[in-house]
Amino acid sequence: MATKALTCGNADCNLASDRKCVEGYEIDECPHAGRISIDDIPEAEEPDTVVTQPEPTIALASGEALDRYTASILQRRLVSRSIGLIGPNDSGKTSLIAGVYDLLQEGAVSGAAFAGSSTLIGFEKVCHLARAASRSAVPHTERTSRGSDATFFHLDLYQEGLGLTSLFIGDRSGEDYLAATDQISQADQFFEIRRADCITLLVNGAQLADSGLRHEVKAATPQIVDALVEARSIREGCRLAIVLTKKDSVVASRYADRVQKDFDGLVKSISESHGAYLGEVKPFVVAASPKDCENVARGEGVGDLLLFWLHASLPPVALGDGADRGFERMIDILIEKGTEN
């Protein structure tokens, strides 16, 4: 009968060879006898694993409206124009953005053809509620949220003889711009206005046709420009488009002539106040997304505005001593008055 091999958990004990406990215990009493030394435990072999390299992928843009940093990167690719849209609440900023995109789906607009966009998802979102697919009874566009950072919608447009131009249209809540008229420091956050080649001021035609709202529109609209110029958010030499929106509502109103007269007065007032500071002031009348297309064609006037956006800005003209600079900063006027006294 074979003798069972003795083992000991103490690595210094030779129990297996001399059958004696190194600590002097009887074999039956030794607490380590019969245990396997840690040195005798074989190391586990790790199974062979095959490392699979991930398949190469391509990072795709989300297609949503761009933040300021992404827009800056794209603006360096091609000749670009940056547009700042400003106006009181419900003046038609989002409708104008959607209207430009929708018109380009049907072909070139005033010689400018769609050549690409990195914000297709964003465009589709703002257009959806104005389309039959939304099943809305009345065409509608979402309002931009108050307090949110401005975003940019991007279009690459091709013009015969001029090639490709990238257009970046800034979008921010009208309430934020209106707040700057009460607290001018609010204008510091309007980075989309400071970088704009063209500012587009929207005047709500439907509200101007409303006897109860027209005076508020006439008061608030120029105040926004006053505040942004005073804060130097609008840079010197920047071009200004003043746009009467919702032409369908104006045409349908019995006060259409009065609306046009009020609008002409706004354009004249702003031109007289800021014409020397701005590069160019030009009026437009548009029906970007009309609710009633019987008397006004969809997109009427948008083509002319698009060409104005794509036009290169002229360098600011240096004014000589004594030249009338038009509107001055209120703080400068107060300082001058204080010095005189």
Structure description:
This protein is of the alpha/beta class. It contains twelve helices and seven strands. The chain has helices spanning 15-18, 68-75, 93-105, 120-128, 174-182, 191-194, 205-208, 214-230, 247-252, 256-274, 302-310, 330-340, and strands spanning 80-86, 112-116, 151-159, 163-171, 198-204, 239-245, 280-285. A seven-stranded mixed beta sheet has the order 2-3-4-1-5-6-7, with helices on both faces. The longest helix is centred in the last third of the chain and has 19 residues, at 256-274.
Would you summarize the structure shown here?
The protein is built from 12 helices and 7 strands.
Keywords for this structure?
341 residues; alpha/beta; elongated
SSE arrangement:
Layout: H1 15-18, H2 68-75, E1 80-86, H3 93-105, E2 112-116, H4 120-128, E3 151-159, E4 163-171, H5 174-182, H6 191-194, E5 198-204, H7 205-208, H8 214-230, E6 239-245, H9 247-252, H10 256-274, E7 280-285, H11 302-310, H12 330-340
Parallel strand pairs: 1-4, 1-5, 5-6, 6-7
Antiparallel strand pairs: 2-3, 3-4
Alpha-carbon distance between the termini? 126 Å
Order of helices and strands: HHEHEHEEHHEHHEHHEHH
- Kindly name the structural category: alpha/beta
Enumerate the strands of the largest sheet in spatial order, edge to edge or round the barrel: 2-3-4-1-5-6-7
Alpha-carbon Rg, integer: 36 Å
Largest sheet: 7 strands, mixed
**Outline:** elongated
Percentage of β-strand residues: 5-15%
Mean pLDDT, to the nearest integer, reads: 83
- Poorly predicted parts: 319-324
